[in-house]
Amino acid sequence: MPNLVPPVVTSQQAMAYRDRILAALPAGADFKPLMTLYLTENTDPDDVAKAHASGLVHAVKLYPAGATTNSASGVKDFDKIRPVLERMAEIGLPLCVHGEVTDADIDIFDREAVFIDRVLDPIRRTTPGLRVVMEHITTSNAVDYARDQDHTLGATITTHHLVINRNHILAGGIKPHYYCLPVAKREEHRLALRAAATSGDTRFFLGTDSAPHTDANKLLPCGCAGCFTAPNTMSILAQVFEEEDALDQLEAFTSLNGPAFYRMEPNTTEITLEKSAPSLPKHIDTEEGPVTVFDPGYTLTWRVA
To answer: Each residue's pLDDT tens digit in the chain (305 positions)?
Structure first.
């Protein structure tokens, strides 16, 4: 995720960000960060191609300006990014899309569907061969669109969008820790996401969009969007897939479909899940303050052994 402050917009910045991540790893950790670039209207196609050829960058991320956290440097005029998209199509570098329009006259619950019609579909039609990931989809519209397309389109689904709908955010009082972007939608959309995630369709795979904002930043009058699901994602997903009688599809959704789309080998290491209540913290303390772990609203019954 390159939406830092400032954003990661060049190959040099991506290399420096990767080095900071590697320097922070504990001794013996087996972790390889996969870097992306933040697409702007001034992005240099040659720099993108260079970063991809070196093996440093595995995707470019499109944030419509103002669509989500730290997206002020994103794209307003989509015609200005056409040269970059054409070069990406040539070299096979995926475009990861935060799929929402930001027009003030478009209701926030309709922004994903309008983005597909006004922005995404025209981009794909005018840039044949461009490989696109619709990141953290939230509507049946996006599910249907993904199912109707060819192998150049994939779609990720977050853990929390499989659990919450918009009532969880608003009913009975505002719940800031359930506020995310794209915002959770009606129950019918949540059920469509669950059906897609557990279906075995290789176009759908996990993208947690886990966001560890501190409580202080979440609880502001204009609080940050995002749910922190990293600690309990696998426990939640195991329960969701069990409820949908689809535990046999869990590995593909979390660990195989994504690497296949990105043309990468899956991890060789494995984790084991067992049917037992996990012991997970409600908060994690950091130097900048506590971070609240996403609460699915029910008792979890699976844990990572």
So the answer is: 898 889 999 999 999 999 999 999 999 998 999 999 999 999 999 999 999 999 999 999 999 887 777 677 788 899 999 999 999 999 999 999 999 998 999 999 999 999 999 999 999 999 999 999 999 999 999 999 999 999 999 999 999 999 999 999 999 999 999 999 999 999 999 999 999 999 999 999 999 999 999 999 999 999 999 999 999 999 999 999 999 999 999 999 999 999 999 999 999 999 999 999 999 999 999 999 999 999 999 999 999 99
Positions of E strands within the chain? 35-38, 57-62, 95-98, 132-135, 153-157, 204-206, 273-275, 283-286, 289-292, 302-304
Nearest to 135 by CA among 200, 206, 75: 206
- Nearest 10 degrees: CA dihedral of 159, 139, 155, 126? -160
Q: Specify whether the CB–CB gap between 179 and 192 falls below 8 A.
A: no
Distance CA 289, CA 214 (A): 6
Q: Which two tokens stand for residue 217?
A: 């930043």
**Helical pair 233-243 and 187-197, crossing angle rounded to 10 deg:** 90
Active site residues: 209
CA–CA dist 17, 8 (Å, integer): 8
243/142 Cα distance (integer angstroms): 23
CB 88 within 8 A of CB 130: yes
Cα distance between residue 176 and residue 92, in whole Å: 39
DSSP 3-state of 139: coil
Q: Is the peptide bond before 26 cis (omega within 30 degrees of 0)?
A: no
Residues 6+ apart with CB under 8 A from 279: 303
Q: What is the DSSP string of 185-217?
A: --HHHHHHHHHHHTS--TTEEE--------HHH
